[in-house]
Amino acid sequence: MSQPTIDDVVDEADDVRRTWERSVERSRQALREALATEGEDPLGALHPAWGGRGQVSVRWILAHAVEEYARHNGHADLLREVADGQTGE
Fold first, then answer.
1. Cα-Cα-Cα-Cα dihedral of 62, 67, 71, 73, to 10°?
2. Average pLDDT of the residues in 60-72
3. What is the pLDDT of residue 62?
4. FRET label pair with 62: which of 1, 8, 56, 78, CA 20 to 30 Å apart?
5. What is the pLDDT of residue 60?
């Protein structure tokens, strides 16, 4: 098996970026639609989740997304600290 070339790596990175961009746009559209619904509390409206086995609100989804990003950003900080030895702010 041959080693990947820099062009292979760049192509793969470009594919990942395009997939991420499409996912972000789908998420933004879903949020726009959820917020456009009638009612007093569109963030509190329940939506099916986990293949219909439960329900979550848009508020829960947004809070969960922030929590996940914060957790993974913390992981990235740990990796950076191991790499360069710098800690704190």
1. 50
2. 89
3. 93
4. 78
5. 94
Spatial contact of 64 and 49, defined as CB atoms under 8 Å apart: no
Q: How many CA atoms, within 13 angstroms, populate the side-chain half-sphere of residue 19?
A: 6
What's the confidence (pLDDT) of residue 88? Answer: 66
The packing angle between helices 58-84 and 6-35, to 10°, is: 150
| Average pLDDT for the chain | 85
SS (H, E, C) 10-66: HHHHHHHHHHHHHHHHHHHHHHHHHHCCCCCCCCCCEEEEHHHCEEEEHHHHHHHHH
**Model pLDDT, residue 64:** 93
Q: Are 55 and 47 in contact (CB under 8 A)?
A: yes
**Helix count (H) and strand count (E) of the chain?**
2, 2
